[in-house]
Amino acid sequence: MPVPKPPTRTDPAPARPSPLRHPLAAVRTSRRIRALKLLASVSPGLLATVAAFVIAEAILPNLTLIAMGRATGRIPAAARDGLGSTAGHALLLALAVAGVCYGLSLVRGPAQDALSAVVRARMVVTLQRRLVTAVSAPAGIAHLEDPATLDRLANAQGQLMNAAPADAPMTVAAQLGGWLSGTMACLVLATFRWWLGLAMFVAWVAVRRPIGQLIRSRVGSFRAAGEPLRRAWYLFAIATRPGAAKEARVFGFGGWLAARHRDYYVEGLTPTWAEIRRQGKRVAVVAIGVLAVFALGAGTLGWTAYHRQISLGTLAVMLTMLPSSMAVGTVSMSDFQLEMMLTAMPDLDALTASLTPAAEPASATTARTDAVDPAGMPHRDIVFEDVGFRYPGGDTDVFDGLDLTLRAGESTALVGVNGAGKTTLVTLLARLRDPDRGRILVDGVPVADLRTRDWQKQVAVVYQDYTRYPVTAQQNIALNLLGTPIDEEALLKAAERAGALDIIEGLPNGWDTILSPQYEGGQDLSGGQWQRVALARALYAIARGAGVLILDEPTAQLDVRAEAAFYERFLEITHGVTSVVISHRFSTVRRADRIAVLDGGRITELGSHTELLDHGGTYAEMFHKQAAAFTGGPASGGPATGGRRKRA
């Protein structure tokens, strides 16, 4: 039964020294400061508001308890003398102060929720913009296939641990406010017995240390388990997204998805469970010590109260301060979540630092002052010279000494079996990857010496797995998403040549229709209609100055009539353009000026359709086999009949 497989690595499983494993304990404080600095860079005003929240978090709870304790101490005198007496007035005043403090304390909750929502919204936009900028900075795409980079990216988004880094500043603020509140409670206890306040503070700090270490170790285990957790998230996405959900139901592998998701998740969590067991005894011992100090404090208060050495008001205040002091060292789920949030900070910084153009080889950047402007190129040809390439982690070469010349203004078709490297050749031509050896020359200039971004604008590609953008039909073709002006005449001509004009004009809102059913007023297209939109996108780029047109399986999703129409217009579409056509359909391939056969990492045959049929090699064999499937004749045919088909 065919089932989708999660992304796997081809290299062996031994643990690699992951760059994700940072000394968490040594940098936790700096990461808290880093989170607050990041908020300051987003909005200094928000940081000031958060600082005010920290002060309120530290003062209001204790102030409320102190006011209530003082009011409690005035009750006996007021009960004895009556509310109209001086003691009664003092009680009413104390109750009023306690009520105001309590009211302000109640406001903290809604105020914190509102402030958290604002901070989170601003942080989400900022962090996502930084991530998008970082992963978009390299000219190529190899980094998006690197496991270490993908681990960092997933962690920087909070995907693996289900903890949003955008919540880190407010969580840091809440934790800091709680710590200050607990410290203030210890100071109040010290006014009763200096050693009691000090003992409570030291005890809670002592208990926080091992529990904090446990949390950091557990988060570190999460980070080290990035790969199985990413696989678990991948399987979860397959089970919950409409595209794969159809096959999951038809082929009945929903149970397999659930079982594999559990296996990978358990694999990722097992190290953290082991860490909890190792640290559990130490935490238990420290907790017993804290309970002893707490019992000593409560016993001391009870003893002094029993012997009338303390007033009722003081007793009421001190008894409430004992549990309030817990905020110094209490560790809750928010501490664990904060540690997970903060682990995103090093990954965010690392992605930004490692993926910026300055970190790339000089030949790959657009910042070189001596880089050649590729505008209008190629004028003469594009030459692949002894090119070799192997994917990272692969055990075989995709190309091994490949030589090929693409003549300017001519169409070249690439044929070969699946996996021969046809699409890989396109990625090298577009500078999405660089060859391991050899050179690619454009008019004699190494492509590595061209301005990378500008050269990529010279290459218009209709990928086999083209992107379906959930934007308007106009934006899907013109890609003017950054507000660049649209050439209306070129846009209409590109859509017409691609056979997409009638489709677009038939949409509910024409060119302004959003091509996605997930938005109000939007409409999806069929696979064949989308392919015409993708072709129009490339043709529009050609009209706006691109010099190379690449068509990767341009008719794969077209119906018979649309495919026939494309064949008839192929020469018109590619006229005067340096074009590369990748197709398994020889009705398209035969119309190219030259045909190159890619086999074993090299170009083994090169010539026109007629020349290659006369040669009787691999191309002739493939052509006759495909023709026999339609005519019912033998796999090897008679005389070659090249050129364009005659129209009836």
List the helices and strands and how they pair.
Elements: H1 24-42, H2 44-73, H3 75-81, H4 86-136, H5 147-156, H6 168-192, H7 194-224, H8 226-240, H9 242-250, H10 254-306, H11 312-324, H12 333-342, H13 344-355, E1 381-389, E2 399-407, E3 411-415, H14 422-429, E4 437-442, E5 445-446, H15 452-457, E6 459-462, H16 473-478, H17 488-497, H18 501-505, H19 527-543, E7 548-552, H20 560-574, E8 578-582, H21 586-589, E9 594-599, E10 602-607, H22 609-615, H23 618-631
Parallel strand pairs: 3-8, 3-9, 6-7, 7-8
Antiparallel strand pairs: 1-2, 1-4, 4-5, 9-10
Helix pairs in contact: 1-2, 1-6, 2-4, 2-6, 2-11, 3-4, 4-13, 5-13, 6-7, 6-11, 6-12, 7-10, 7-12, 8-10, 10-11, 17-19, 22-23
Structure keywords:
single chain; 648 residues; alpha/beta; ABC transporter transmembrane region fold; Rossmann fold; 3 domains; 4-stranded antiparallel beta sheet
Describe the structure.
This protein has 648 residues and is of the alpha/beta class. The protein folds into three domains: 29-357, ABC transporter transmembrane region fold, CATH 1.20.1560; 371-458 and 547-639, P-loop containing nucleotide triphosphate hydrolases (Rossmann fold), CATH 3.40.50.300; 468-543, 3-Layer(aba) Sandwich (Rossmann fold), CATH 3.40.50. It is built from 23 helices and ten strands. It has a six-stranded mixed sheet with strand order 6-7-8-3-9-10, sandwiched between helices. The longest helix is centred in the middle third of the chain and has 53 residues, at 254-306. The chain is elongated. Residues 1-28, 358-367 and 637-648 have low confidence and may be disordered.
